[in-house]
Structure prediction request, 203 residues.
Amino acid sequence: MVLDLEDSVAPAAKEAARAALAAMLPGLAGRPVVVRVNARGTPWYLEDLAAVLPGAPAAVMLPKCAGMADILALDHHLEALEVAAGQAPGRTAVLALVTETAASLHGLDYRGAPPRLRALCFGAEDLSSDIGVTPRDAAGAYAAPVRQARAAMLLAAAAAGLPALDTPTPTRATPRGWRARRRRRRATASPASSASTPRRSRR
Prediction:
């Protein structure tokens, strides 16, 4: 389950949403909870981490990740908070959304990342908004720049030995449409890029 503090929460509601999520986490102990915090560089990022780490989520999802510097900073912040909470350093996994801005595409090298980085994630919607294109056509196919970003993410994940997770499809589709999307994904995906099950890529 993914609990979101970023795009689904308006700026004026961030503090209340953070407090509600932190209060909810102890009741979800033992479940594979992922918390999407706000991006590094926003005024909410550090407060999000400080609020949710005591609840021991399985993973933190970092949106708008711009490169290895963001991962290293997050690793440092998580380690400090884990120690403060009496948790084993490194226990909190990281999933990084690495294609949500045009600028982030220049930082797609995650070789040698900290072990807590478990997967690179593709985000089509925010990237499309950032570059001013419609993410998909009527048949559900990605626009050319979005396809290029997805391919770059797959290559970066393979180079780093990490799973690559595809973006969720935000709209309902007919069975015929789903079959067409699966065919397109299989034609462009590496063994590590299953949209449903993360797997370690082949080296």
The beta strands are 2-4, 34-36, 59-62, 93-97, 117-121, 164-165. The helical segments are 14-24, 45-52, 68-84, 124-131, 144-160, 175-188.
